[in-house]
Amino acid sequence: MNMDNITDNSIIHDYVITHIDDAISNEWIKVYYQPVIRALTGQFCSAEALARWIDPEHGFLAPDKFIGALEECELIYKLDCFIVEKVCRELHEHILAGKPAFQVSINFSRLDFIKCDMLDMVEKNIEKYNIPRDYLHFEITESMIAQDEELMRDNIQRFRERGYEIWMDDFGSGYSSLTLLQDYDFDVIKLDMRFLFSMTEKSTEIVRSTINMAKRIGIKTLCEGVETKEQVEFLTLIGCGKFQGYYFGKPQPYDELLESMVSKNITLESRAWHNFYEIASISARHTDRPLDVTEYDGNTFYTLFMNDPFKEQIGLMNMDLREIDKILYHSASQNVNQFKKFADNAIKSKSLESFYFTNGGNYFQLKIMYLAEHENKYLLRASVNNISFDQNTKERDSLDRRLRELNRLHEAVLLINYKEDIIFPLIGGYLYLTDTSEKILTFKKGHKHFAQNSIFPDDRDEFLNFINYENLQKRSHSDGQTFVKKTFRIKQRNGSYEWREFALLPIQGTRGHEYLFIITKLTHELTMSLDNTLYPDFNKYTDHENVTADEYARLWYSLITSSSYKLFWKDKDRRFRGVSKSFLEFYGIKSVNDILGKNDEEMHWHVDEGPYQGDELDVIHKGKTIYNAPGQCIVNGVVHNIICNKIPIYDKGEIVGLVGSFADVDQEIYRVLKIANPSKLDTTTRLMNNKFFMMTMMDYAAQYNEAGKNYAYIVMHNKNHHRIEETYGSKVAAALLKEIGEKIIDVISQEAVATRLKEAYFGIIIYIDSKEKLEELAATLKNHIEEINSINGNSVTVRMTTACHLRSEEGLSDETIYPITLKEVDDKEGNVDN
């Protein structure tokens, strides 16, 4: 009996409820896939998974016959969990067979999150089938959020933190779509083409505005239900990112879909290029300003998107993109070599560059912005202005007059564009950046250079917070304050520091992206007041003895704030009372407050704590002076050989503490003898290289055998490394290795030594006294590293296999702990050849 012929809904309802488990276990439920096409390239970039129930007794059961029944009886989670498992299995089988695999979006119900931990279920299937996380996206609806905001907010955040995209389906069908975009983080919004069914002026404007609004806030766009060529052309023109609908393909089983795409000459977008074209898609949008998005490989330009205002400026209206490319970029074009030079300069600077050229008797200004690159192909965004047609001469002259007025009031005025990463002088040039050879600086590079070289050391952190874009936005949102100003000390040409007022003024109409950065001199009275308030008072005595003390104080202040000496001083209990700036920088400690009141043992940064502890006790209790005492310390997982000097501090003849300094031996040898300093660092990460790590293991072994100090060895391996390298190339793979190294440093700090053993294998050695603590540390490292889900915008799924052993475990020796632990990792992965 065909279910379509049954009019009694209760019969269908009861059949679905009583047979859902059979349908899942017997796989009467099939997964069909409907293709999603990228607008800019016409490539097949993903698909939506849709459930189809093909019953052996009743035939095809339409989704509207069973989904509602499962929702009503709170059994929908069984279907959705099955769909996740089935999609992962099919992707795994195709990847294993070397067949094409594509990203898939899966629909979830609110009841799914109530009935089970959906993230845990997804993660288990991802791990079981070894599928990259970016192959799965999840669709939810506005109504799901409206029914339980807290439940959905928590789950959206959890999924996105693990690297999954969350898509809002049927955007605009509810009553509070815009509020949801403000309160929740979505990666994609899906619009239904029911909006454009009649293609009225009102409906097209709604879709145009929605897509523009989404792109401005960084959300990607997809229109489903696309069925006509007219809809495709309109959506492409207004910058819609992706299409889904019967115009491109109906829902089909996996292999049939692939065959259908081949028959229609629609190619599959490579996973390696996904991020590249996502950036291109979100950059293409409807605007009244000239806009062009182009690929460039160092020789050939290929336009992906060009709006009508751009075509109008260059006088090439009513032409398709391939015709325009032939005119602009063919080998006989008089400007093609200029365009290549312009593009190369923009790629080199990785910021907005302006160029001028003539063509057909017209004078043009071309602005090019580097967006992304992959495998020697570059993505560029451009705008063009035919200056010959520019009618804004009066406005330009008015602006010039205003700038001259500002010149009388302020020492320097610069334009900062946070979005385009530009800092550009309007008045005063690069007054305090005269030692840079670059004509136009990126903001990221320029403001750090300025802080490091021109701002008074004590003011640098505060200055960086002052100019930070996120802090500006927070201030604006919290109290409506947009204009901010603050005083800082700035270095003059003669080397002295003088007070200046700094102000950041937002430029109207730039959506908070552009600011005027203004530097203004202060009055003499205000300068004196600030000096008296913030500088140490070294001038309050007139007698010779106290004047000498004041001079010593100035010397000491200069040494601890500005010298390269790594100085420290401690109280009678060997607890830190203070350290110099260079000391903090050497250890990577952010604030002196992180070390005050602690001793060396609590900082865990010596390989052998005994000698230094003994030296300090001799200084404090016997008045000894220690010169050039050798030792080893750990900095960010790397062992450094150091020499240390320590002398007692006296107060009225009584020892009240000690003061000391230390130096890195290898750096000192290089400084004095100009001998090349052999790096202890791995060339890819900031961890110790294998050679020096093995030497350090000998030191740990000596401590175990001579002092009974137990140590442990941890080996970790990212088993997905080769897949990531094959997909994205060696640069992304190397960047991931570096990020894994940073994650390891986050966890071990100064307490352990870490290395990259080979490829994606990492080793860690640490003093530790129990297996329970060791396993807890290994689990913490694994979890922290596996939080990595993106490298340079490319989605990655990291899976760390770990093994760990204490030296004191039965059957282990200093010689065997390393190979046994490494073999255990390989055995877990089945890597018999490693």
From TrEMBL:
Domain GGDEF: 709-834
Entry-linked SMART domains: EAL (SM00052)
EAL domain: residues covered: 13-265
Keywords assigned by UniProt, alphabetized: Coiled coil
Gene3D superfamilies: 3.30.70.270, EAL domain (3.20.20.450), PAS domain (3.30.450.20)
Protein name: EAL domain, c-di-GMP-specific phosphodiesterase class I (Or its enzymatically inactive variant)
Native source organism of the sequence: Butyrivibrio fibrisolvens DSM 3071
GO molecular function terms noted in the UniProt entry: cyclic-guanylate-specific phosphodiesterase activity
Alphabetized CDD domains for the sequence: EAL
UniProt-listed InterPro entries: Cyclic-di-GMP_PDE-like, EAL_dom, EAL_sf, GGDEF_dom, Nucleotide_cyclase, PAS-like_dom_sf, Rev_trsase/Diguanyl_cyclase
Domain of life: Bacteria
Coiled coil: 767-794
